Amino acid sequence: MKNTFYFLFVSALMLSFACSNKKSEQSNENTSATDPMTLYSEIDRTSAPNTISEKEKSKGWQLLFDGATDKGWHGYNQNGVPECWAVEDGTLTMKSTGGQEEQDLVTDKEYKRFALSLEYKLTKGANSGVLFQIKEDPKYKYAYETGPEFQVIDHENWPDRLEGWQINGCNYAMYAPMETPYKTLGEWNQLMLVVKGNDVTQILNGVVTVKYTKYSDEWTKLRNSGKWSDFPDYGKFDEGHISLQNHGTKVWYRNIMIKNL
């Protein structure tokens, strides 16, 4: 009887250990699958613009822009697409000059945990940005009142001196980029934004420029001590629209894809 009990006890321990290892392996696989640089490597840079490869489809990527229409997008707090935006030669771009931030373009859908990949090209002195976790409400005039921004700017030709938290690749008005791997003016830059819960990673041309954790002590201090102290709902939402900012200068966007994590 004792031998039988011992055998059953050992068998149960071995089964429990095997299940634990299996869960650990699955957890490691899931973590690897959502690693920002792994996600960046999933993008096929050889495909034609605004198309999605079988490899990308198999990994869960979806197009947010088809290269021919503005389907899936609308103006911030608007029903349609503002006239200052256009589909031009397979890109989403701005037609007008002068400040137009109240006419940012936003996705129809909201996103929470995701990886966003796109390419952008700047004109001299251009300024734009990719914002996320945006809420639409008449009480907000601008998308940036709620949404963090991956800065897109030709800071080298900007007329004024800029701080580190204002230059290309930064998390605007929060974190300066750790690296500045932007390409020569007129070339296409590859941008990726990865949002996993409170962990945010910004990648530019294959290099991580910013990493931070929302609601951390550091993030909270920066949020409360700078520009955003005047905007109480900045960074408040964990799910929201994604936006391409219209700062009244010409920037081209293409190959816009998203993957839910």
UniProtKB/TrEMBL annotation:
Does the record's keyword annotation contain Repressor? Answer: no
Give a yes or no for keyword Signal in this entry.
yes
Write the record's keywords in alphabetical order, separated by commas: Signal
The residue ranges of the 3-keto-alpha-glucoside-1,2-lyase/3-keto-2-hydroxy-glucal hydratase domain are 60-259
Tell me the first and last residues of the signal peptide: 1-22
* MF (Gene Ontology): hydrolase activity
- Per its record, how is this protein called by name? 3-keto-alpha-glucoside-1,2-lyase/3-keto-2-hydroxy-glucal hydratase domain-containing protein
Q: Native species of this protein?
A: Dysgonomonas mossii DSM 22836
